[in-house]
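Box 4.2: Ligand-aware structure prediction
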Amino acid sequence: MDGDTLHERAGAVRDAVFGRAVFVRAVVELSNHCQRNCSYCGMRRDNRGLERFRLETAPLAESLLANIPESVTDINLQSGEDPQVVEEVALPLIGILRRETRLGISVSFGLLRDDLSRALRDAGAGYYVMKFETADAEQYRWLHAPAALERRLEAIRNLAAAGWRVSSGFIVGLPGAPPNATALALRLLEQLPLAGASVRPFIPGPETPLADAAPAPVEQALHCVALMRLASPRWFIPAVSAMAIGRKDAYTRALRNGANLATINLTPPHLRGSYPIYRRDRIIMTERLVLDHIAAAGCVPSPVGMLAWRPALPAAPINE
Ligand code: SAH
């Protein structure tokens, strides 16, 4: 199968399960403090040049309640690995969001103590994003990715067993990858108990040990999106903002060819530069941009949230 056919088939599979509906979520980056030291990530502990911030619950809650765009059905709270922000900000914020809104709540806080992830669940979060980054244990170690690959996978399985809907994923084109890295990652995704999966192209961060490494071609990430959709028709698969950096149409193509989730960034504008997952001039996805990409892909924003979505039942059996 050539690339175009594969991408079209992935789009058709997405349409068959989800129709043309794309889930729209917001992301807020709560803190860039991080106890890890991943070589690929600008938030790493050893990046002394980074001004660190931790948002405060009350002003953030107030601003979110006033500014959540209409198309948004879910919110993802993300941060460096920072148990303090989980305890002091995320938990009360989730309580407020549950009381005041109907948003589905997802979190991406890395490896947490069991009592903290349980508290998040009890507060009303339902979806956990925990990427394994690479499926090759040796490369994982070499990159100083969090803890160890086995530990990260164990955490993913434990979250799913505790009732979370879990999304995982990897970075394509990370330095030090063995030749079969992508195939390994795709296979590992299929073996995990997941509700969603994601892929990001590697983008060298200027303040990291991998600053001089080559970025991954966006085409590779698009290809992975299509393969993931074909592997698992029901996954939530995001188009990611990194796809809008190089080739502007790549984000739209992701939505056309299998992705069904778009993210609007609601981190307070003056702090966005300090959340350098990729690089300081990363593309900030506004509601306008996201809705334009969704329309350009021939899709519509989903009226139903990710956590409320249920697959359509097949036609009812006829009683003879
Ligand atoms: N601390 C949390 C989540 C925040 S980091 C955790 O450990 O899960 C969010 C994600 O950014 C990471 O999971 C990683 O996949 C991605 N990321 C970091 N640096 C990157 C880079 N240089 N290129 C592409 N993706 C990167």
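In the box above, the bound molecule is S-adenosyl-L-homocysteine. The CA atoms of residues 42 and 276 lie 5 Å apart.
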